[in-house]
Structure formats: structure tokens, C-alpha cells
Amino acid sequence: MPHVLIACSASVAAIKIPDIISQLVQKNICTTLVVTEASKHFLDVDKIRNDFKIDVYTDQNEWDAWKTRGDPVLHIELSKKADLLVLAPLSANTMAKVSAGICDNLLTCIVRAWNISKPVLFCPSMNTQMWNHPVTKDQVDKLASWGYCLIPPIVKTLMCGDHGIGAMAEVETIVNQILEKLNNL
After folding, report:
1. Is the pLDDT confidence value at 151 over 80?
2. Which of 18, 34, 169, 174 has the least CB density, counted as fewest CB within 10 Å?
3. Cα(73)–Cα(97) distance, rounded to whole angstroms?
4. pLDDT tens-digit series, residues 101-143
5. Residue 116: phi, psi to the nearest 5?
6. Is 54 helix (H, G, I), strand (E, B) or coil?
């Protein structure tokens, strides 16, 4: 059974994560969720864990799992176990960290430990001005140069009230891209 690891950073688009998980679980795809501390503002991780019967990990789990030399290291174990990594939503902040190689939480440590021969999908979600900033293009280009596949943001009215590009792609688009990647493994 294929195994998808969804890594969720802090964006209001995180509210779409239960819908993505639901569709994957219905297709019998083993799914694990990793959330940043800030993304928990938008998600009820206990509800997701209970509703879908999946493993959900936070930064605290990284430290709870390791006590002494020789113990499993959670970010390494998760990166080895999954066939596909999906960064959704990928906030401007976390995209900056990933593109710079920063490893300061469970999510970014997983990305840094990820075997780049395995596929990665990334689904940016940010305000239009943030998306249009020149550094964002540099970061997207860097991730693409590593073989990561962009699922581009869409144009719509954003939570801040602005209308423009920056919203995370629709659930169906993301799920279809996940299925396509899994079919090509």
C-alpha cells in the first residue's frame, strides 16, 4: 500500500487538509500527517486522528520519541517510511526555511532528511503580495531544481479579503496529483 506523508505548515488553507486526507483514506492510501505548531491554529489534530484513524505528528513527538543514542529519530523514520511527501499548505515562511535548508521543526527536518529520489509535491499558500515577491520565485525555482513538483496556487478571494493569486490549489487538483505520482512509483 502506498504511503503519503502530508506536511502541513501554517496557512488558513490548512482547513482543506481533512478533505484531502478523507479522499486519500477512501482510496486506501496510507496517510500520515505532520503539522507545525502554528498550523494547529487551523486544525483540530485530535479530530483528524480520530476521524481518519491516521497518525498525526507534532514537534513535541520528535522529542518524546527520542531518549538516548540508538533510539529511533522520528523525522528520519517518517522520511524513510513514506513514498511521497506533500507539502500542503506550504506557507511563505516554511517555503523560505525549506529552500534555505533550515531544520528547526519536525516538518523542516523531514524535508531535509527526505531522499530526493522520492517525489515531493508542494502546494504554496500565501497572500498575493507574498506570492508575487521576487524571493518567492527564487524559492520555487530552487525547490523545482531539486525535483520537487509545484502544484501552483490559484486566483480567488483570499481570507484577508484581497482578490488574487496565492490560494492553495483545490483539493481535487492536489488529490489528482498525488494519485498520479503514486501511479508512477
Report:
1. yes
2. 18
3. 21
4. 999 999 999 999 999 999 999 999 999 999 999 999 999 999 9
5. -70, 0
6. coil
Q: Which among 30, 109, 123, 160 is annotated as catalytic? A: 160
Query: Whose CA is closest to 125, among 99, 87, 163, 162?
Result: 87
> Which one-letter amino acid corresponds to residue 177?
Q
Q: How many CA atoms lie within 13 A of 100 on its CB side?
A: 11
- Provide the pLDDT confidence category of residue 99 given band limits of 50, 70 and 90: very high
In sequence order, what are the residues at sequence separation of 6 or more whose Cβ sits closer than 8 angstroms to the Cβ of residue 18?
Answer: 43, 47, 48, 51, 52
Residue 149 CB neighbour total at 10 angstroms: 15
* Whole-prediction pTM: 0.96
Tell me the CA distances in angstroms from 147 to 24, 70, 104, 120, 176, one per residue in order. Answer: 23, 32, 22, 8, 19
Annotated catalytic, 160?
yes
